[in-house]
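Researcher: Good morning. I'm working through a list of sequences from a screen, and I'd like to move beyond sequence-only analysis. For each chain I'm collecting a predicted structure so we can compare shapes side by side. This is the next one on the list. No need for commentary yet; just the structure.
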Amino acid sequence: MDIETLREYYAEELRAVANIQSEAVVRAFAKVPREHFLGPGPWQIVNPWRLDVEPSYRMTPDADARHIYHNILVGIDPERHLNNGQPSFLAFLIDALELQEGEHVVHVGCGTGYYSAILAEVVGRNGHVTAIEIDPELASRAQSNLSYLSDVQVVAGDGGDLDPGPTDAIFINAGATHPRAIWLDSLRLGGRLLVPLTVTEDTDGGGGGRVLKVTRQERGLTAFFISEVGIFSCVGGRDPELNRRLKEAFNRGDWKSVQSLRREKHEPDDACWLHNDDFCLSKLAVAE
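Model: Good morning. Structure tokens for this chain:
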């Protein structure tokens, strides 16, 4: 079976597992060469049955790209337990962004660039992707890997400090305790933000929580959780006190009650699910 056919089967596998609704997302996974972003094979594959402990890896028998066109985690820096991401989960999140042709997408935590390339295919040549990576080594790899796409700009730095300009969608690929102000400020009317809000024991390791989807409407920001998540922490996106309060909020079990993100100053009340000085996840719906 040739590699193009393998990619098509892979994309259809992801459609079924992630319930992808967008044909453009399926086509993107069928087109972008995953092996181009992983470095030369053989590759190290995460053993899924060992995820209860420190991730362990097995080596593919050779450098044939057929080994990585499955819904599997592939190591990009196994020594640091950094992987290329579970394709079905990333496909689900990209689908949830509801991307359209010609939009500007910001990808914070782009790694070596594979999913940034997927985003670029979805928004097309009239669109634009700003791919941001704080790790210098990964940013350099992403710059090289994505150089064939003129509509993708790779930026090395903190995605919570860099102003990407007006955006239609922002995808944060790391766990934060709160949405950064620049992400909310950058959203155009109708713009969508996906950010994993996670709880962790330290600022360097991974954490668990839920992915929040925020959408800018005429009268405010709608917000609700769309899935559970386990992910590495977002450098600069974590606050110890908010980490503690977010853990308490998740433990209450009422996370489905969140309907909006409020930014105006107000005193905390029973409608506040997670209240902070500069943002509040609220149980109140955005006014019609």
